[in-house]
What does this fold into?
Amino acid sequence: MPYPLDAAAVRAWCGLALEALGRERARIDAINVYPVADGDTGTNLYLTLESAARAVEAAFDGHAAAGTAPRLADALGAMAHGALIGARGNSGTILAQLLRGMTEVLAATDRPGGAVADALRRALRRAAESAYAAVEHPVEGTVLTVATAAAQGAERARGEVFEVARAAHAQARTALRATPGQLAVLGRAGVVDAGGCGLVALLGALADVLSGEVSAAPVAVRADAPLPVAAGPAAAAHGAAAGCGAGDPPDDEGPAFEVIYLLEAGDAAVARLRTRLDGLGDSLVVVGGDGLWNVHVHVDDAGAAVEAGIEAGRPYRIRITHFGGTARTKEPEMAARAVVAVVPGDGLAGLCAEAGATAVTTRPGEPPASGELVQAIRQAHAREVMLLPNDPGLRHTAAAAAEEARTEGVRVALIPTRSAVQGLAALAVHEPARSFDEDVVAMTSAAGATRYAELAVAERQSWTMAGICQAGDVLGLIDGDVAVIGADLARTAMTVLDRMLSAGGELVTLVLGADAPGALGRRLERYVRERHLAVDTVVYEGGQHAAPLLIGVE
It folds into this structure.
């Protein structure tokens, strides 16, 4: 039975599409030869859509808490925003713009019948046009061509909204099969376009939901569990029908780095940024609007690409991936063992990188999804991996990621670190030459022997374990509980240190946040030296935004 295009349908579409991309991920990765043969298009599309699906679930949860129901505009806006902030790679960035283009049209539609069908036609056309505009140098035979074909198929279709969706999906599949004849690199490799293959899966999921082939009931989109949705006929058939088979990817010479970041900037500054980045490299895609953008480019000078973003506005969530030189398709030799750590700041990420670990950097309110952690484990390219969540709230997410990585043949140990300072302690004793089990014990013991604290600023009046705090008070949390309430950051930190060191300690680790006063580290180091004999202190610039100071005592 056909289903209306409403908020529930968007929710179900996210769930079914994520299931389809999860099933097709490896196959799409295998045919990824353009613009770079780095074998990650399927993974990038999956991670982008996972971010979109989580945003939709958050929107539904927020409305449920308020006793209201989300409208179509709410669900679509959340989906587009989630894709924007979570976009990965060239393909994920374009997908985010396709969803944004659809949202610009469909969000204004709350009417039944033919009006919705017509809106979907216009939405698919807007999606294709906005994606073309986002790519600095559009190339035919790519996902852009497939998106245009979907719009054409929708425009020729008559009938209800599900019939429009089916026509768009069918035309996209036809266009996908033709891509090897449009783009020489695909023809030489004997494959269709990987990004287009992912878009066909997405459109197939939409057609299945709207036609009633699958239930549009709420789908659990959680970071710690797979989606239990069975694929409908359109989504399930798209791969074989479109010819998504693996070929021999070519050696690919080009820029050495992929640079991606979110950027807060105005339209004029972004226009200047596009011109500058276009002169630095290729595969330039800039998507977004209303002051928030996602920037993607391939360059040889990653620092220059980031500096250009700084000049344009405020870049953050910066990700730089090295393609491995000119022979980017050659698989590096697997390491015996690696460490993957979740950290809340760029400074902490740098510390982890110096120690040889793969860091997953987070921002306040944006915890990583399980798929992001799985991708980090893959990027570590090791037979054995120590996973450090460094946050009690990520326990289930990290466990789900570890379980999925194990199904891919990676031996993963989840070290129960509850804070970044515990993660640093565990990383300090990591020794790949030890046996796997001995390394797990050593790292777990080091983390467990490290008491942790953090200082935060209260946002509102609240009851705490230490009494009532007011907005603006400095809170000292020890092992996760508020233990001290103060008015001054340094004095509150000193009180916290005294309490932690009263039970003994040999080493104090101070991790300064992005907004911490410049002299705070030196002042606290001097305080420990004068008040607590035989206790050493190390100070790091962590760069985290949520807490001005993290403290560890070993």
In short: The longest strand covers residues 281-289. The mean pLDDT is 87.
